[in-house]
Amino acid sequence: MHESVLSTLAAENWPFSLEWLPQPAYIVGGAVRDAILGRTREYLDLDFVIPSKAVKVARAIAHHYKAGFVLLDAKRQIARVVFPHATADFAQQEGNSLEVDLHRRDFTVNAIAYNPHTQEIIDPLQGCIDLQQGILRMVSPANLEDDPLRLMRGYRQAAQLGFTIEPVTQAAIRSLASNISKVAAERVRVEIGYLLANSQGTPWITSAWEDGLIAPFFKNATRESLIKLAAVDNAAALLTQNWQQLGAQLQKYVRDTIKTTWLGIAKLACLVNPDPELAEIELHELTYSRAEIRGVTTALKLLPQLQVVDMSLREQYFLFHDADMVFPATVVLAVALNNLVEAMSGDKPLHTAVAITEETKARGCLVWASLINRYLNPDDLVAHPTALVSGKELIIALDIPASPIIGQLLTEIAVAQVEGKVSTPIEAIAFARQLLKT
Predict the structure, then answer these.
(1) DSSP characters for 361-401?
(2) Are 131 and 36 in contact (CB under 8 A)?
(3) pLDDT tens sequence across 64-88
(4) What pLDDT digit, counting tens, does each position of 154-191 carry?
(5) What's the pTM?
(6) CA–CA dist 279, 334 (Å, integer)
(7) Which pLDDT tens digit goes with each residue over 22-61?
(8) What is the structure's pLDDT at 4?
(9) CB 87 within 8 A of CB 62
C-alpha cells in the first residue's frame, strides 16, 4: 500500500517542485485516500495543509509558474493554484497541530495525511482500516453539523467509492438531516449532480431521500420519483445495448462548462414537478443553468408526443425540431416510464423495486426504434433537415417582404420535403407560391 501511495503522490508528478513547500507540509483528503485505494485520476487535484503562511506559499508558486491564483477564503487562509492539468489547494492548518486539523474533518477516510518530505503516512483516526473495509465513518457528529453539506457528501462519496456508510454514521446523518436546509441550494445541487451522473448513485440518492436530505430542495420528489430514477438507469442500459451511439450521447455534458450529462437531465426530470412550467420555477430556485432547465422542461413537454405509436412524418419532424439536442434524454425518459411496471413489495430497497420483463423491454424498444434510428442517422431529413431554399431566396423569388410568413413557408417546405412532395429548390419555390395563393 505504501509503495502505491509513494508513486501516485510523488513530487515528480506535481506541476511544481517540492522545494517550494515548507517543512512540514502535508497532502490530505481525497488525493491521499484515492492513492491508498489505487484510484488514478487524469486530472491531478492536490490539497495541502501548511502550518502557517499558506496563502503566501500558494501565491509564490502561482507567480513562479505563471499559474492561476484564487484566494478561496482569506479568513481561513485557503488559496488555489490552477495549472493546465492540475489544481493545488493550500490551506492553513486548523489548530496547533496536524492531528487537531485531521480531527476536524468529515470522515476518517478523508482524515489521512501524507508528508511528501518524509514520505510518511499520518493516520490518527484509523482511516486506512476503514478504506480496506470499504466503510465511510464520520469523525464526529459535531463535524457533520459544523458543515451540513457533509451530510449529503457522505452519500456522494459512498457512491463514488462503492463504500457502505457505517450504521452509527448513518444514524447521525438522519438525526442531523434538518440542518441541510442551512446549506445554499447550489452547493447541494453539485452533490446531487454527482449522484445523478451514473447508476451507482441511484441507491444513494434514494437513501438520501429516505433520510430526509432531498425533500427540502426537491419538494415534489416522492417514492415513485426514486423508482423512476432506477427505471431511467435500466432504460439507459437497454438503449445503450441496442444503440451504442445513443448511449455515448447520454454520457455527454449538456455544455462543456456544465458538468451535467443528458442522462442526468432525464433523471433530474424524475425529481421535479411533471408540469414543465412548475418544473422550470423549481429548477430556477435551485440555481440550475438555463441549459439544464431547458433540457428538463423540453423532455417533460415532449413526453406525451412520444407516447404516440404511429406518428406521421409531419409529427416526427416537429418532434425532432422541438427536441433538438434533448432527444437522447427525452427518449430514455419515455422508455423508462413505458417500461416501469408496478413496484415490488415495499419491504425491498427502492433501487431494486423496478421489474422489467423481456416482453416489456422488446415492446419499449420497438416503439421508439424508428425515431432513434432517424436521430442517429445524420442524413435523415426528418431528424436532420437540410434546407432546399433560404428565406432570402424565397423573398426574391416570390417578391414578398420579410415577415413571419417566410419562416412559416420554410417550415412547410421542410415538411413537404420529408413527405416526398418536393426535392429541389425549384419545386420548393413552386410549392411556396402555391401555399401563398391558398
Answers:
(1) HHHHHHHHHHHHHHHH-TT-TTTS---SS-HHHHHHHHT--
(2) yes
(3) 999 999 999 888 899 999 999 899 9
(4) 999 999 999 999 999 999 999 999 999 999 988 999 89
(5) 0.83
(6) 17
(7) 989 999 999 999 999 988 777 889 999 999 899 999 999 9
(8) 59
(9) no
CATH of domain 134-212: 1.10.110.30
C-alpha cell at 393: 431566396
Per-residue confidence (pLDDT) for residue 161, from 0 to 100: 93
Q: What is the secondary structure of 25-49 as a DSSP string?
A: -EEETHHHHHHHHT---SSEEEEEE
The helix (run of H) or strand (run of E) holding residue 435 is helix 425-437
Residues 6+ apart with CB under 8 A from 351: 202, 203, 206, 226, 229, 230
CATH 3.30.460.10 placement within the chain? 2-133
d(CA 3, CA 113): 15
CA distance linking residue 272 with residue 224, whole number of Å: 12
The CATH 1.10.110.30 portion of the chain extends over 134-212
Rounded to the nearest 5°, which phi and psi values hold at 312?
A: -70, 165
- End-to-end, the C-alpha distance of the chain in Å comes to 80
Residue 243: φ, ψ to 5°: -135, 90
409 contacts: CB under 8 Å, gap ≥ 6: 394, 432, 435, 436
Question: What 3-state DSSP class applies to 354?
Answer: coil
The CATH superfamily label for domain 2-133 reads: Beta Polymerase, domain 2 (3.30.460.10)
Cell readout for 101 is: 486539523
Amino acid letter for position 233: D
Measured CA to CA, the distance from residue 154 to residue 54 in angstroms comes to 27
Question: What is the average per-residue pLDDT within 1-17?
Answer: 76
Whether residue 169 contacts residue 137, with contact meaning beta carbons closer than 8 Å, is answered with yes
Decide if 271 contacts 305 (C-beta within 8 A). Answer: no
CB burial string 389-421: b at 16+ within 10 A, e below: beeebbeebeeeeeeeebeebbebbbbbbbeee
Look at residue 259 in the predicted model and tell me its pLDDT: 81
Residue 437 has pLDDT above 90, yes or no: no
